[in-house]
Amino acid sequence: MLVADALSPEKRARILAGAADVFARDGYEGASMSRIAAAANVSKGTLYNHFESKAQLFAAYVEAACARNLCQVFAGSDENTDAVATLERIGRRMVEMMLSDLGLTIYRVVVAEARKFPELANAFYNAGPARAIAEMARWLRARTAAGALAVADPEFAAEQFFCLCQTRLWLRYKLNLQDAPAETGVDDVVKAAVAMFLNTYGVNS
Fold first, then answer.
1. CATH number of the domain to which 70 belongs
2. CA 90 to chain centre
């Protein structure tokens, strides 16, 4: 791509926002590059100049959304705060991200299309869950080195922690079996998850 053809941040954001609307409404297979171009108010030629395929555009949309949200989830995790406070903050933000309209939209599109388009599932996993597990494992490894935790397998423990934080929330909500939980409901689940996690990995366990 020529420097002159570089996509401006404003236009890229517009394209990704248009893609989000169309993918949410039509699913992956039903979405078309023409509809996405129209939603983003750019020409179809401009769209194809920067995204060679619908799969590449979907991957870019998912990567941008995950990067933005995961940055918020882990913000402040390296500050010198105690493990309980940090784990509760990370757990609460992760649950809120998963239960958000954006989080559910991406998840439902990927699950609906994963069998036919496995590359979408791979793009989602690498941009979202894998990055979250890696960042959580990095924090757990650092806290273990500092003597605050005792975690032998940080990647495994990271995945355990995220699963614990989903108890009674994620499955019911993604199946539309309950409304979005109140903040106190999320707090109760996350606090119980942190207590259970530290019973295993706390230095006095």
1. 1.10.357.10
2. 13
Tell me the residue type at 121.
Answer: A
- Mean pLDDT, the chain, rounded, equals 88
Please say whether the beta carbons of 169 and 188 come within 8 A.
no
From CA 187, how far away is CA 89, in angstroms rounded? 9
Task: Please check whether residues 164 and 82 belong to one and the same domain.
Answer: yes
Amino acid at 133: I
CA distance 180 to 172: 10
Burial (CB count <10 Å: 0-12, 13-18, 19+), residue 7: middle
Q: Same structural domain for residues 13 and 78?
A: no
Give residue for tokens 């784990």. 87
Please tell me the distance from the alpha carbon of residue 129 to that of residue 142, in angstroms, as a whole number. Answer: 20
* DSSP string computed for 134-173: HHHHHHHHHHHHTTSB--S-HHHHHHHHHHHHTTTTHHHH
- pLDDT tens figures, 21-73: 898 888 888 889 999 999 999 989 889 988 988 888 998 988 888 988 899 99
Residue 62, domain extent: 55-201
Amino acid found at 165: C
pLDDT in tens, 71-84: 999 998 888 778 99
